[in-house]
Each structure stands twice: as C-alpha cells, then as structure tokens.
Amino acid sequence: MLHRMNAWTKMALLGIVVVFVIVLMDLYLIALLFAATVAFYSLGRLPLRLLVGWYSMPVLFVVTISILFMFTEPGEELASIELLGRRVAVTDNGVLLLVKLLLRALAVVTFSLAVFMTTKYSHIAQIASRTLPQSLANVFLLSYRFTFETTDEMSDVIDAIHARNGNLVRGASRQTKLFAGIFALAFVHAFERAERIAKAMEARGFNGTFPMAEKLPRPGVGGYAVVSLTALALAAVTYSRYVEDLFGWW
Amino acid sequence: MRGLRRRAQMAHIHLEDGAFTIFWVAVWTLAAMALLALPLLKLGGKNIPTRKLAIASMCVAVGFAIFQVEIPVFGGIHINLTPFIGILVGPSLGSLTVLVINVFSAAVGHGGWGMIGANTIVNLVEVFLGYYIYRAMRTRVKTGRFTAGFGAAFFALAVSAFIVVGIVTASEIQDSTQTRDETFRNMLILAAANLVAAVMEGVVTGYIVSYIGKVRPDLLDDVEGRGKDETTLRAEEGTPHV
Question: Among the residues of B112-144, which ranges form H helices?
Fold first, then answer.
C-alpha cells in the first residue's frame, strides 16, 4: 500500500511529521506519534530489524547531546552515585527530557526511512527538481544515483581487507593509516569518475537540467484527504501549544 | 548498507529533530540559506560548469559513504571529513557538497530534517576553515602535507565544536528548564570530548592528504597555491551550459 502511495503525499506527510515533533510537548502524544510512524513503516512491509539498525545513529546523537541534562535537570532524584567526591544524581525530569528527545528523533527517522524506502528514484527526482534550486537539485540527483554504489564499493573494500586478515592489523597508527588509505582512494576514484561523467554529460548535450523519463502524477482524493486531516491535527496541536491549551483534559 | 556498526566517538555532533523550538529552527535555516547564497553565486548560480557539478556530486556520494564507516581504533571513531572536503574541492563547491550530504544524512537520521540549517552552518565553518587553514599552512608557513592536513582539520573541528555549543546554548533544548548558563556549561563538556575526536580526525585527514599528495598531487594544486596553465583551467571548467 505504501509503495503505491503518491510520492507528493508521502513527502507532505514527512514535512508534517517533522513539524509535529517540534510542536508536540506531551510525552504521551509524542509516544503516540512514534507508534504511528512505526505503523506507517510496517504498512510498507519493510524489515523492522533494519530499522533498529538505523536507529543507532540518531540514538547516539540524542544521547550525546542530552546525557548531561539527565544529571543537571532540576527534578526528583531517581538514583545517585559518588564520583570523585561529588554526588551525581539522575533526575526524573532529566530522564523525561532524554526519552522525549529520543522519541521525537526516532519518529522522524522511522517516517523518513519509510518514505525513501518505498519511493521510486524517478519520483524523488521529480520532487527534487521541482522543489530545490536547479543547481542544488542537479547535485542531489547526480549524487543520489551514485550514493548507494559508492557505499557498497567502500564496504567491498573493507570486506576485502577483512578477508585478507586486515582486521588483525594492530596499533592505532597502522589502523588509522589503513583506513585513511581507503578514504583517500575513494576520493581519488570519485574525482576520476566525476571527470568521466562530466565528459559523458557534455558529449550528450547536457544543458543544465536532467531529463525526467517518468511523470509524477498529482495525489488522488485520498492523498489530499490524508494530508488535509494531518495538517488539521497539526494546526490544532500548534494552536494548543502557542495560543490556548486544547488538551488540558489529557 | 553493509558495514554499519555501533559508533563510539564522533568528530562533531549532528542535531536531531525536536531539539529546538520552531522559532530557532527557522532562524538557523534562514542563516544557513544566507551563508549558502554566496558560494552558490560564486559557482555561477544556475550555470555551474558540468565538471564542478560532477565533482560535487561524487564527493557527496563518498562523503556520505564515509559517514557509515567506523575506524576501529580507541573503541571506534566515526568521522565526517568535512574539513578535508573543503581542502579538496574548495570552500564554494565544498559548501554545496556538505549541504547535500546533510540532506541525505537527514533521510537516514544522521541529523534532523529541521536541523539541516543548523548542521549546515556547523559544516560550512569546517569546510571554510579546513580550506583556508590548509592553504595558509602550505603556502605561508610551508609545512608538510600531514602537518597542514592535521592542523586544518583539528582547528576547523575545534571551532565547529564551539559553534555547536553556541547554537545549542542560544536555542536552548526544548523541555529543558535549564538557563542558558547551565546549558552552556553542559555543552562545554561535550565540546571538550569533541576535541579529542577532532585530534583523531586530524590525524586521518593528515594521512589522507599525504596519500593524495603522492598519487594525485594535481588534485591539491588549487589549495596549495600552484597555478594552472590556461589550457588546463579551460579543460577543467568544461563548457558552462546555458
């Protein structure tokens, strides 16, 4: 179902989810939003194990930013330890802050991955070329074609190194040199590939815009309805936060 | 994508969605747009030469791939190489490159969609400082490539770590009841930890620049102040499309 959903509808919903996580303040509503994004992801029959793997990055970033707030946020102490003669305590508000930030970040990541894993390249290309400035859209479209290929190439080189006992290389300096060599080679290859691509593009009469082979249709009535309803919900939450509390009963 | 592992240390932090209020998200987005306008104009606006377009695109692909790799030293380091991208492609093309890397990264949760502005400002500082410090060290101080690469990456990342402190302190974390002073103190500890990672990325950058200097020294011609003859320049620029 998600695979057949119009790309404009999915992108509009992604934008709404991003604003939702910024505007929502209530923990239960944020948790509900997160659950909704996981349900959306599942609707596309996408692998949940892969999703958990992708969570490692946002979790690390959120924890790094908010870990100190867990100890310094005013609130009721949940646990404490003596560290270098000083008492360090985790507070309830500190934990709450971390949980909220985590749920917000993960809600967006889940939705974003669902959108990009179920949308065809040609549709993303159409949206990028219509919404971004031309030069930016060109870089985006050209790099999008090669991103996965380059990532796989780099993984292959690392796998090849491991297959040849490269993981037995010991010492920070040698390991760092080894990986620096891989990265440097990747950039050298990137330049060589760029030169070939540029020549090929010019030979084919590239005039500053990439031709679009497939047209992206407008959203259907259902798509407009879904986007309108979620936008309405967003408007209510925003009004409730900035003008008058509509969810006081919660 | 294979090769994805748990990260232990990062040379800089990417901010995730939901950390700032809508006001600050708008402020940093507008600031990033203003900062990006200059390099975009310098590159020729809509008429970026095909070769530069291709180089920026391929650097985005490699930069994004490197984001996914962890170097297995000191428990694992995750690097961004943004100062190196600045050294390699220059500040204008580098700015465009890091912006698109941030867009891709947002798609996989490596920084938020709403935070593309704030994250791009941090990266722009790294690209600009990486390029100009390396150039100054090579052309004026006349240091070796490793030293120049290390110095450029370390100082660029050190400054960017404090830019992150500034951005988070000014914006304040949503839901936190702490004052700006308290937030600043918390973030300073984070910046100190980032400095350690900056040293490591500096070493990696030093090695990469030395390697490229051996196999393709021509790629460093611009940043090392070696002039190019007119024929080479014309061939590199390609035909600007109309």
Answer: 116-139
